[in-house]
Design a protein that fits this description.
GO terms for molecular function: glycosyltransferase activity. By secondary structure, this protein is an alpha/beta fold. The chain has two domains: 228 residues, Alpha-Beta Complex (Spore Coat Polysaccharide Biosynthesis Protein SpsA, Chain A); 67 residues. The protein has eleven helices and seven strands. It has a seven-stranded mixed beta sheet, sandwiched between helices.
Length: 330
């Protein structure tokens, strides 16, 4: 046990939230009540300068709380990784800085880790949000399932748990925590869910800007590609390129038939330009796939793409010794 700390609670704050001070006080009370084997790590993104000064004054002299401030605004995943770098607990629980869950959601996460999970995603039960918000959440989780093949009830829930060994394998990708369990599941970790009570102070309706929705849609598209085709980029590029090339060649064949047998002129035929464009575009897309395969071979050929869960070494019994043992018990 590292430094006597068993559980690390990581409060990450990448955007200003009016309720973060209340959440901080509740977490301070939680770790103090649990004793010195619990610690609280508070990580603030670089643009929250005023909040950092307030927290620095509030947390001065508290040996169970560590405050971390980033130099510049770097996003949610960066704040989480910065907190994981200083966490000393065997079990680490990330806690959102906005009112999604209360401290009574922490024990179910720890119980799931104790039961053998490597990474735990909380999903809120008893939510008080509007029907529109619940419908949007179901649609988003359904979209994630359809595009990546990984199913979660409440991927937007900010309370997650992980073993310290898993924290060192957190991929440095994206700017949002909700993609981490999908990437870790792809790496072979045991990712499970745990039901947690929703916060009683969770806001009923939260509207996202069109720009934020557009970014999330692009993130889901990129994540789907990473999950399915990271090791084989030629498959999607090759499929699209072959289809484009075949359509272009088919149009070319039609034009050739019309020119030879129907004596139709090819001059001023937009279909000819379209056919040539499809053929050249298809060839270029296939070449992109080959370049992706080449990059993976050159840069990742020595990378281990599997994870060993357990290795058991035992004595090798020779045939003679095995026969002698059978005769004894014979």
């Amino acid at each position: 046990m590292s430094g006597g700390v068993r559980v690390s609670i990581l409060l990450f704050c990448s955007q200003s939230a009016g309720s973060v001070a209340e959440i901080l006080e509740s977490l301070i009370s939680y770790v103090h009540d649990r004793g010195p084997d619990h610690e609280l790590i508070v990580v603030l993104d670089g643009h929250l300068v005023g909040l950092y000064a307030r927290f620095q004054e509030r947390l001065a002299g508290d040996g169970q709380v560590t405050l971390v401030g980033l130099h510049a605004q770097q996003g949610q995943v960066a704040t989480i990784r910065a907190g994981l770098a200083v966490a000393r607990g065997q079990a680490i629980v990330t806690f959102p800085s906005y009112p999604q869950v209360d401290t009574d959601a922490i024990p179910p996460i720890l119980e799931a880790l104790a039961a053998g999970a490597d990474y735990v995603v909380g999903y809120r039960v008893g939510r008080q949000g509007s029907p529109f918000k619940r419908l949007a959440s179901r649609m988003f989780n359904g979209l994630i399932h359809a595009t990546t093949g990984v199913a979660f009830h409440d991927l937007a829930c900010g309370i997650h748990g992980m073993r310290s060994s898993v924290s060192r394998a957190i991929p440095n990708y994206g700017d949002n925590q909700l993609f981490l369990p999908i990437l870790l599941a792809r790496e072979g970790f045991r990712v499970t869910e745990a039901a947690v009570p929703a916060s009683r102070s969770e806001p009923g309706l939260h509207l996202f800007s069109p720009a934020a929705l557009g970014r999330r849609a692009l993130d889901v598209l990129a994540l789907s590609y990473l999950v399915r085709f990271t090791q084989k980029p030629l498959r999607p590029f090759g499929a699209v390129g072959v289809v484009l090339t075949l359509i272009g060649l088919l149009l070319c064949a039609v034009l050739v038939y019309q020119r030879i047998f129907l004596h139709q002129s090819l001059a001023d035929r937009p279909m000819l330009l379209l056919a040539l464009l499809l053929v050249t575009s298809g060839i270029q897309v296939v070449i992109l796939g080959f370049l992706g395969e080449l990059l993976i071979y050159l840069h990742f050929r020595d990378q281990v793409n599997y994870r060993v869960q357990e290795e058991v070494r035992g004595e090798v019994i020779s045939d003679a010794a095995s026969n002698e043992a059978e005769l004894r018990h014979g």
